[in-house]
Amino acid sequence: MAPTLSVCLGQASDRGRKAENQDFHGAILPDGTVLALKGVALALADGISSSRVSRVAAETAVRSFLDDYYCSPETWEVKTAARTVLTAANAWLHAQSPSGQFGADPNRGHVCTFSGLILKGRRGYVFHVGDSRIWRVAGASLEQLTEDHRIALPGGESYLGRALGLAPQVEIDQRVIELAPGDTFLLTTDGVHEPLGPGTMARIVAEAGEPEAAASALVAAALAAGSEDNLTAQVVRIEALPDGSAEEFMGAAARLPLPPPVEAPAEFDGYRLLRQIHGNARSRIFVAVETATGRQVALKLPAPELREDPAHLRRMMMEEWIARRLSSPHVLKAVPPARPRRYLYVVTEHVEGRTLRQWMHDNPQPDLAAVRDIAGQIARGIRAFHRRGMVHQDLRPENVMIDRTGTVKLIDFGSVRIAGVAETVVQPEAAEVLGAVQYVAPELFLGAAGSWRSDLYALGVIVYEMLTGRLPYGAAAARARSRAAQRRLVYASAQRGARPVPEWMDAALRRAVDPDPRRRQEALSEFVADLSRPDRRHAGAPRPPLAERDPVRFWQIVSLCLAGVIVYLLAR
Q1: Could you give phi then psi for residue 267, rounded to 5 degrees?
Q2: Structural domains in the chain, sorted by start
Q3: Helix, strand or coil for residue 154?
Q4: Which of 498, 518, 510, 565 is nearest to 535 (CA)?
Q5: In whole angstroms, what separates CA 479 from the centre of its chain?
Q6: Helices (H), strands (E): how many in the chain?
Q7: Which of these, 498, 495, 433, lies nearest to 464 by C-alpha position?
Q8: CA distance 110 to 26
C-alpha cells in the first residue's frame, strides 16, 4: 500500500469570561480516495462582539466551508473549490443583514473572521480573512502564515477592515505551503494569541507533546494570562505524507492485474467479446455484450507490454474515472460493470458511427453549416471538461466520434489534465507533450500546463482542417519548440484553396490558432459565435497583407511587375 496523508489533531474552545462563545471551529479527517482527492480540512471563525448573531455567522462560515468543500467536484483544484465555497458563504451572510432585525448595520450583522487550512497531498492551502491566525511551528517560535485585516486608528483603537459578511464581495487571502513530516500548525482566535505571543505558544505546544493536550493548554494559558475574549485553538501535526502515486485515488483498480491475451469472439470476465474495432501497440478495443445485463459496451484492454510503461498505464486507468465524473451528451460515457472486475480494463458505451477523420474524408468540401454544427458540439463537450477542472489535451479528428444521429462525442481521455489530481500526484511525465503534435497548442511545447486555451487551439486547428483539408501552419507548428520559432510561424489563410471561406470566418480561425494564447478568443463560445457571424469588435482591424493571405498570388503579381519592368527597360 502506498503511504497516505496522516495527521494528529487537537481542538479546544472556551467562552472564557464572556457569557457566550461566539467562536466556532471544526475539522474533517476523511479516509480513502476522499482523503487523497480532497485532503484534511480545518477551520475556525470568530464572530464580532458587537453583534448578537455573530455566533450564527461563525458557525455558518465553518460548517458551510467544511460541508460544501467536500461536496465540490473532486476534480477541482483546492483553491477553486475553497474560493467558490467561501464566496457563497460571504454572500449568504451579507444578505442576512439588510433583511434581519438589526438592519444594515454591519457591526450588528452576520459578520465573522475566518481561517481555514486544507492539507492535501504534500501541500497546505491557507485561506484567511480577519484577525484570527494560522501559524507554523518554527523552532522555538511560530511563523505567522496569515495577515491581520485590522485598520489602526489614532489612540490605539482598531477595527476589522475585512471579514466574512461585511460586504457583498470579500477578498480571501490565499497561500500555498510545502509540507514535511513533523510540521505542526496552529489556528487561533485573538482571545488566545493576543495575551500569549508566538514564543509562549511555541513553548506550550512543545511541552504539551500531543496536539489535543497542546490545544487545551493554549486555551488555559491564555485565560490565565487575562484574556477577555472567547478562546479557540486547533493544533495539527503532520505524521506522514503520501508519495504522490496514482494508487492513492485509484483505489483497488490500481492493484488489478493486466488482462491475459484474448481474441474475439470469446468470453472475458463477464463479457462476450463480439469483435475488435481498434487496436495498436498499447491497447485494443472490443465491442462486447455484458452477459448479466445484455448491455452492449466497448471494452478497452491494455496490451501486456504496458507493464513496462507505468506512465501510460496510469493514464489509461484514469479514463474511466474521468468519464464517470462527466455528464454531457457530447462526452463518452462510462458504464459501471455489473460485477467486480478481475482485471484492469476500461468499460464505456459503444458509439455506432464514424470518427471525424472519416467524416472529413467523406466530405472533402463540407457545407459551412455542417462544420459550424460539429464545432459547436465539440465545444459543448470540451466545456464539460473545463467546468470540472479538466483539460482534454488530445483533441484531434480521430478522438471525435459522430454517431448515426449526428451527435458528436469526445473520446479517449488518456491525456486529460485534472487540476485536482495534478496538485496531488507526482507525475514525472508531466513535462511530456501528450496528444498528436499537429493539434498541440504551441505553449505546451514550451512547458506550460494545458488550459482551456490550449483546447481552443486544438479545436481551431480541427475546424480549419475541416474547411481546407490542411493545417494552418503546415508541419512548422509541431517543430516550433521555442518562443522565437513560434513568433516566426506564418498563418496560411483559409481563404486560399479550392473552397475559400469568408474573410470573417478566416479571421476567427486565425485568432483561435494564434501561437500566443493571450490573443485567442476569450471563451470557446466566442469562437463558435465568430464562426457564424463577423466579429464587429475586429471589423476595423487591418487586413493581413496579401503576401500572408495568398503568397502564390502575391509572388505572381511581383513576377508580373518585374516582367513589365524588364520589358520596359529592354524597350528603351
Answers
A1: -95, 135
A2: 6-243 (3.60.40.10), 251-349 (3.30.200.20), 353-541 (1.10.510.10)
A3: helix
A4: 510
A5: 28
A6: 19, 22
A7: 495
A8: 19
Cell numbers 458511427 correspond to what residue? 353
Rounded Cα distance between 114 and 110, Å, is 13
**3-state secondary structure at position 151:** strand
What residues are paired with 403 via a beta bridge? 353
DSSP state of 142: E
Size of the chain in residues: 572
Q: Report yes or no: 215 and 235 within 8 Å, Cβ to Cβ.
A: yes
302 in helix, strand or coil? Answer: strand
Element (H, E) at 85: helix 78-99
Strand 400-403 relative to strand 408-410, pairing: antiparallel
Q: Give 246-300 pLDDT, tens digit per residue.
A: 455 555 566 788 898 899 999 999 999 999 998 887 889 999 999 999 999 999 9
Q: Which residues contact 70 (CB under 8 A, 6 or more apart)?
A: 28, 30, 34, 38, 41
Q: Are 210 and 216 a contacting pair, CB within 8 Å?
A: no
Kindly report the backbone phi and psi dihedral angles of residue 165, in degrees, each rounded to the nearest multiple of 5, phi listed first: 85, -5
Whether the CB-CB separation of 111 and 159 falls below 8 Å is answered with: no
Please report the DSSP string for 408-423 in residue order: EEE---TT-EEHHHHT
At 219-258, the pLDDT tens digits run 999 999 999 999 999 999 999 998 765 455 555 566 788 8
Q: Are 114 and 121 in contact (CB under 8 A)?
A: no
Strand extents, DSSP E, 197-282? 231-240, 266-268, 271-279
